[in-house]
Each structure stands twice: as C-alpha cells, then as structure tokens.
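Troubleshooting entry. The earlier prediction with heme C gave an output that would not parse, so I re-checked the input for stray whitespace and re-submitted. Clean input:
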Amino acid sequence: MDFRTQAFGVAVAGWWLAIAIPGLASGEANLHRGKQVYEKYCLACHGPQGRGDGATQFDPPVADLTSSEVLMKPDSRLLRSIHDGRTNTAMDAWKSTLSDEAMRDVLTYILTFPR
Ligand code: HEC
C-alpha cells in the first residue's frame, strides 16, 4: 500500500467514526436517561431487573417485564400501558409525570433486561 492509499484509508476510517460515534452516544444517552427514570419511578414495584419482585407487592401482581406475556406485545402497546396505565391495577398512568421521550427511554431500558 502506498502512502496515498494509506492516507485515504485513514480519512475514510475517520469519517466513519465521526458519523458512528455520535449515533452510538445518543443511543447510550437515551438508555442512561431511561435507567434513571426506571430507578426513580418503576423499580419499587418492578424490581431491579424488571421481574416484578420490587419492594411493594400488589394484587393483581406486578408484571414481570422479562416474561413472554409482556414481551410479545409490540412496543407501541407497551408504551400505551406506560402512558395510560392499566385499569384496575396498581400500574398508574405516567403521562402527567413523564414526557413522551422519557417514556420511550424507559421502555428502551426495560427491553435490555436479561430474559
Ligand atoms: C405501584 C406499582 C407500580 C409502579 C410504580 C409501576 N408499575 Fe408497571 N405495572 C404494575 C402492575 C401491577 C402491572 C401489571 C398490570 C396488569 O396486570 O395488567 C404493571 C405492568 C407494567 C407493564 C406491562 C404492561 C402490559 O401491557 O402488559 C409495563 C411495560 C410497565 N408496568 C412499565 C412500568 C414503568 C415504565 C414504570 C415506571 C415509569 C412502572 N411500570 C411503574 C405496577 C407498577
């Protein structure tokens, strides 16, 4: 490889990183915000890994966010559950507490729990 080919390779790699890194960083920022929201508002019921084993128990029980029952629902459906709550359960509507973005971030975070 002559110098010019090498320089070109470095330039392409630099250009690629300049595009890829901000993309990754913004994804990480969403996840980080989602984690903060979860720990503040959801962890007490849903537990540290979403298994419904938080400090407070309810009837009907807190959903296990890693169960297939929950995960088979499309994201839009889960987002609606967070937004509007679940009738006759302890799951409140969060629309007046959280922004749309915060609800999306916390859903993104929930979906990273080990299954
Ligand atoms: C007071 C306890 C409590 C808190 C706090 C709480 N949840 Fe829930 N959550 C529940 C219960 C109980 C259910 C099960 C509802 C049912 O049986 O349909 C549930 C269900 C869910 C489901 C599954 C909904 C579905 O459609 O199956 C999601 C997703 C969820 N919660 C997300 C959250 C998020 C995100 C937060 C924090 C912003 C949160 N929950 C805070 C009690 C809670």
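This one parsed fine. The mean pLDDT is 91.
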